């Protein structure tokens, strides 16, 4: 991942209180949500963001417009805590239009100034922008903009877009199109001006964005909605209209909904990891049920790797649908062999040496009644650093399993993502530095199986991966990056470009 | 439930910020935990309480002893938040012995003074007490004690016990035994003095309490542990020795572990609802795996009620094991048809009228891919007021189910519990005021089935319920209360006795 | 001072965040306030306590009664912060009667449980008690009470009184009188029951208590008020009726105000330090204006000690009236030579070595324009440890003073107070361990003068001190203690008796 | 005052919790402080800002540089609270150079983004800027900058300066000079880059700025300091070198201190209100002791207005030095007739109707012993709206004064300040809408006297006001504005120009 750093110290050194017991997972960076045409637009947005919480848990923000003023609140924390009614914030975010954002930092330090939606006061008035994705030439453009007198306040790539718009000419949409034509990367954007709610997806369509509608039968009106996933529509009872299409710009205003395709057409490459892990299982993404996709992957995995075993156990919660698929296909019973504790606080208990070895149990406990004396198939979605996998295998063995077979519903994660996912550097990816057998030995399981690349595509309903023209972006497994990585190429090899950065102190 | 009230206003009128989106569930009132013989006894206790969080989420507290002083921290909130390391509290709770408590208020308002463990300074020194259960003659005894000059500081039944001890004679254990001989009710107690860690279960053994051991191979020492459930042992890697027996008092000190049975023997009546809902599925309670018990109940349910259907869907998380059992027995596929959002904050979003109808979706969403066009068996553990059940059925129908069959893995909940469980008054229990058909209609499902009483006992490995001598306390289903309800009998019919009460203001 | 300790560690070791830049002053322990007969009794009480803030800054509390329920809020912090309207606490303290308390801990650790008013549920109903003073046989009585089964929740001497009442017979006032007949010490008490507001002063009348009245012309009603000082009446526009008399018990209820003198008459011994430092200069205490008394002391000081000098400079704020008196008498001009910064937070800036030497300047700065090249008379009220005096002399010399003459408007403080004032142990009192010349040298001034004992009495309008029958309690100067010190006599010599104590952790 | 507003709603409508019991005073907008060449530069800065707290109490901020990174903390609140050591913030602000700022909002809403120092990442690296004063053509320039693509993040005039620098060419100092040549207004600036600490005063020298030095004898090094007033030097034991001169730019780096005068010379017009009220009495400002200046004004006042009276009473704290001067000149005794309570919290007690009339007494109480039966001269520094004066006169009469003569140590405040002082609009200035006699009647005093303009200049050591070339800026009394008011001229008459503004919600 490309990090924006200050001087020589990588920003990632700043500890900002991530859960020390967090899973060894890739993390989606962001969710976006927008709505125009209802009272309490900010409340609807808060609910939408709450349903999209899994896409970003570091910070959340809403900007709304009441016909006269823009109002905003942006803060580190979960949606349900930041917009807790006892704090009285949402109540002050009045207006009929709003956009919101959940963030899991990819570029930019965890500074309050980086929390989206960003807002700028243009000649034509105010504009708020929220972005899911990552621009791969943001630093390149930033240097050029700074040279011409632009003052950046954040370290986000999104601000680059705003400065490009400030230097463009014409109407809001003219400027937005001009700016987007200069950027490279993956993005699903929502923007809010005094008159318009706008949604755009990059020409490759790497990140998801859906369009929905919420009818108010009492008033005979209806509101349009943009949301990263359909679960953001479900929570407010809105109906899905369709996915926003790759390269499409949707403009919603008083006169209704307008669509255009202002960019040169390119081959679509939707992120396949959205199906494996990022999206919520109850979302329908690009026409596929995520739950069904995961079950299909579990079935493929069972077909590719028929292990004799007594019980199929998911690593909760993400491994559940694949494990059900695996169990259905293999006929081995599905059981809840690992119980997850949902009450973990952010920084519970200083892990002294004596406590430290307890590690993973804070979140998980083996269900001995299901495990003891059994040959266990463990189903997980992916292996990133491999640290958690090792602890879970240890826990399962301690609970009396006679054999542990680890089945992974993705191919080995060998490459970093530069399109909006928080990936460790390659040197930390287990699959980038070890052979399969080395991985198995390190994790301590009896067998270790990843689904094949073709198996994964088969689960998506295709005959296999067409390497000449793959249907999805699978760069994290294949290293085949569909969008130019300008900033990486210009950086000093370790992927970190330099920016002068103000380090804001956070308060306990 | 018997509530302690002030004047004419029932204490339950005080709103103390319960989750407005909470399940329609009975709530276990408390967890207890104690450990003697390790450094960082309070940290171990915090971890144990964290694993026992499901038994009480309103408040938590720890009292420890460092050889010279007792230290305490007691606060409203979850264990992981109260003892978050950034607050530096656990670090100050030094010592080799500690007891702790999670509380879900049954008696006593949510006042800080009511948070356990309680502590008193006796002639012989300090004593801390934590209690899971409910004393059914606490108010009766309290009136007598006040008449003799006792000053109560809390409204908990546990303080009655402490005053009884203060007026008894002899050693700590003499006084504890004398006091317990005067009380009626259900209790699993842990106590900590300067020298001893004590655990006691009432003669009926209504509430669980297990004894464990944590060896420190490096030092060649080992610590004894008392915990409400085995999951409190698992989290710190401790080994279960055995259940504390009904009527047993275990005293742990420098000289080791001592057991006695100071009370008249009575028939055991362990709470059967611990298997149905309260205990964690990975706990082994009174010799039974909770997970296995739930699966067995699910199987009995399928045998008693063979519905033709396409899919078995649990109401997460508590309905999962029964649903797996149901699916295994019936052959109908088990699917995750309802997705739970684990990020809900306590008081998220003021439910305006427009928002209110969204209701249950904050926590749950139907997984349309699994539901649409299907005949659905929904498996839940119990129905209390029925409000949530109705909303879930509505949600499942909205997702396209053609039939909805609700199967409940407990008999109808017709009576209040007075032994330590937070039950609404009978008038609010759906099954106490409606026929089965009325309930079905109110909930809106096609069929509604509860497991039979005999089926429930069969799932526990018995031939059925022996009504002359039932093996379990099942008063909430049968109205057969095994322990006298003195305070209820003396109260004014609505179950609320009168106490003068100081209403402490809480701060935002 | 007698401190209640736990085991061998004195409670005073517990650092509870006192202002590290605090003055070297004795501290009055408490203020009391009570009102009956107005709406918003708690708001009036909060205002009264705010005016009495100088008498106790550690914690504050209010208990009120609304005709049905008692309500309370008690918390560490200043009145204006604890009852800040944004927190919404006072708004919930409804009712027509209330008592309140400001606390500066004398006995009892800074635990929330120790914050007054204390409240107890007696057979006859609830009673709240707030206390200014100190009982000198509280521990002696406490041991006896514990032996008879009383459970203490706090470490305050006030709770001893409550347990004595619980074991007494008869009506509320019977019990209160019976309990007070058993205690020794200094006290001004206010109590609130469902029917009565009661005020009592000990027979010596060591601590002040005034009676006032607040008429509501609109309603034709009037409320009675009890307050430690008249400034507590002024702030709410109430009129002073008279001082409560030594040994008097005033009972206010629906039928009006009743006075009785239930104790054996004793010689009055009002605390003379109230005039020197504790009371607010705008209060009228026992018939004397505090401001006038201080000016008269300054005048005496100038008469006793006519120093040739250029400028009279008060150490703000307490030295101001004496300095004005000194200047008027001596004809030397009064100037503000030391400027005080009123913005100091509680724990501002960790004093690293480099910063530490800056010390006293956080609160004070020399006004060079007034000091430079001048012979300066510095007027302060007292010297306790002498640490601040040395720093101030240093600062004045650094600002260019040619001579520094320190004039103190009290005799040397040679003895501890046991009647409700927070005094260091004798070993820390500068005047108890040094000669006058040693003190002068240690402080670094050119001359050091204390007012004589007779001069002090002259300033109070008397011919001098009648050592056979002194008009005031002046034990801190004379060692002549008018009330028996039972607990001190029974303690182990260092003044600290032993109690088992629970140390509650506070949160940052 | 010119306020930056959003749409039609003036920003001043936003209630941000100002003290409801605040004095009726003009408020200085800001303090600046900078230091280069010591360890713990941020701690020194926090201390300096603490000493300068009187110049701005809304917010405070520090930016420091550690040789590699810039660190910052900026927050609403007092210095001693924001940088309270328990919060651990200052400890993280490491480095040898720092600048800081206290803010009392003049332009810009109380948004976190507006808290200074501002920081920007230029081509040449990072730069932090803190500003005391007000730019009178900031909006004019802002519109032009936005047109050319600048994106503003704050609503402060200071950001205009930063964008001007971004569009300028050359070195940091070249750009700063170029930018400053384009702005009009009053400013004392401090800037911090990776290499330099810079201080600049506007050519008129309206706002103060002093240069100091702090030697570290142990290391043989010394640090340079820039501070709004000398009290910021005193607190850290630093020595004053001299005032920064009007139009001077001082650059401090490794090679020492460099001075230049890059602007066209103009007549000096230091703000005379700094002597009357803004500056601390112990500061030496432009060669005059503020305390001496105030005493001299008091003397002039007594000469111009010899009232027969019994006592001279200051309105504390600002009226004290003038009252001493008045008393010395008139021979009438100086007495503390009003006692100030220093414990007022920000929003203490919701002022219900019943409570509201108590008003001013929360902060002040009349000292009856001094007032009763006396003819009182009350000395105050200024009258702005007149509301407080009326309440104080009422309070003094209620305490028994026979006559009340109000003497004001400034001429009538008839005009708004546009140079960095928070003044109400003219329509709210009592002296702008009433005759002297009307004012007297409204305030309710027997006589009301303001010092004459010539008297004020005489007190400053001049023969009187030279109306052709006044020595000071006295626009608030004379309407003679020495610096062009471009934005006012371009605004819509009510002084408020329009900006699109994001309204950030504040929490609790």
Automatic annotation (TrEMBL), chains A, B, C, D:
It catalyses: 5-phospho-beta-D-ribosylamine + L-glutamate + diphosphate = 5-phospho-alpha-D-ribose 1-diphosphate + L-glutamine + H2O. The keyword Transmembrane does not apply. SUPFAM superfamilies: N-terminal nucleophile aminohydrolases (Ntn hydrolases), PRTase-like. It is an enzyme of class 2 (transferase). Gene3D superfamilies: 3.40.50.2020, Glutamine Phosphoribosylpyrophosphate, subunit 1, domain 1. Its EC number is 2.4.2.14. Signal peptide: none annotated. Its cofactor is Mg(2+); [4Fe-4S] cluster. GO terms for molecular function: 4 iron, 4 sulfur cluster binding; amidophosphoribosyltransferase activity; magnesium ion binding. Residues 30-255 form the Glutamine amidotransferase type-2 domain. The keyword Glycoprotein does not apply. [4Fe-4S] cluster binds at residues 271, 417, 473, 476. Binds 1 Mg(2+) ion per subunit. Binds 1 [4Fe-4S] cluster per subunit. Mg(2+) binds at residues 318, 380-381. Pathway: Purine metabolism; IMP biosynthesis via de novo pathway; N(1)-(5-phospho-D-ribosyl)glycinamide from 5-phospho-alpha-D-ribose 1-diphosphate: step 1/2. The active site is at 30 (nucleophile). NCBIfam families: purF. In the C-terminal section; belongs to the purine/pyrimidine phosphoribosyltransferase family. This is Amidophosphoribosyltransferase. It comes from Pacificispira spongiicola. The gene is purF.
């Amino acid at each position: 991942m490309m990090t924006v750093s200050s001087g020589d110290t990588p920003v990632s050194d700043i500890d900002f209180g991530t859960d020390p017991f967090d899973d060894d997972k890739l993390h989606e960076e962001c969710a976006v949500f927008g709505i125009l045409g209802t009272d309490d637009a900010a409340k609807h947005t808060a609910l939408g963001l709450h349903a999209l919480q899994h896409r970003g848990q570091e910070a959340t923000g809403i900007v709304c417009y009441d016909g006269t003023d823009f109002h905003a609140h942006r803060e580190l924390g979960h949606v349900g805590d930041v917009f807790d009614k006892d704090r009285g914030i949402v109540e002050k975010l009045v207006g009929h239009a709003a956009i919101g954002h959940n963030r899991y930092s990819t570029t930019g330090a965890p500074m309050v100034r980086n929390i989206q939606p960003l807002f700028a006061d243009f000649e034509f008035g105010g504009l708020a922008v929220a972005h899911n994705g990552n621009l791969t030439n943001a630093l390149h453009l930033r240097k050029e903009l700074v040279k011409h007198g632009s003052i950046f306040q954040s370290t986000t790539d999104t601000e680059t877009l705003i400065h490009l718009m400030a230097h463009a000419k014409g109407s809001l949409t003219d400027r937005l199109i001009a700016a987007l034509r200069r950027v490279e990367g993956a993005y699903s954007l929502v923007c809010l001006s005094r008159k318009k709610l706008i949604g755009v997806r990059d020409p490759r369509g790497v990140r998801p964005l859906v369009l929905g509608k919420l009818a108010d039968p009492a008033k005979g009106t209806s509101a349009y909605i943009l949301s990263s996933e359909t679960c953001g529509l479900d929570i407010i009872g809105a109906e899905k209209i369709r996915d926003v299409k790759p390269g499409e710009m949707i403009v919603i205003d008083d006169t209704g909904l307008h669509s255009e395709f202002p960019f040169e057409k390119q081959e679509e490459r939707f992120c396949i990891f959205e199906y494996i892990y990022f999206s919520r299982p109850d979302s329908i993404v690009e026409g596929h049920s995520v739950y069904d996709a995961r079950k299909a992957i579990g079935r493929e995995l069972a077909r590719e790797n028929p292990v004799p075993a007594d019980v199929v156990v998911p690593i909760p919660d993400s491994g559940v649908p694949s494990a059900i698929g695996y169990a259905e296909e293999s006929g081995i019973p599905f059981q809840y062999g690992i119980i997850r504790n949902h009450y973990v606080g952010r920084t519970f208990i200083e892990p002294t040496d004596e406590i430290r070895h307890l590690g993973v149990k804070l979140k998980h406990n083996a269900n001995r009644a299901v495990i003891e004396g059994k040959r266990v198939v463990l189903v997980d979605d992916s292996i990133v650093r491999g640290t958690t996998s090792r602890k879970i295998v240890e826990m399962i063995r301690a609970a009396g399993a006679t054999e542990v077979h680890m089945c992974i519903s993705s191919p080995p994660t060998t490459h970093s993502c530069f399109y909006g996912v928080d990936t460790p550097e390659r040197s930390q990816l287990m699959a980038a530095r070890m052979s399969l057998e080395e991985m198995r030995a390190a994790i301590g399981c009896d067998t270790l199986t990843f689904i094949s690349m073709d198996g994964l595509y088969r689960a998506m309903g295709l005959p296999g991966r067409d390497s000449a023209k793959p249907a999805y972006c699978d760069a994290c497994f294949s290293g085949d990056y569909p969008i130019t990585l300008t900033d990486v190429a210009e950086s000093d090899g370790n992927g970190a470009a330099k920016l002068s950065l103000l380090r804001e102190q956070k308060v306990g």
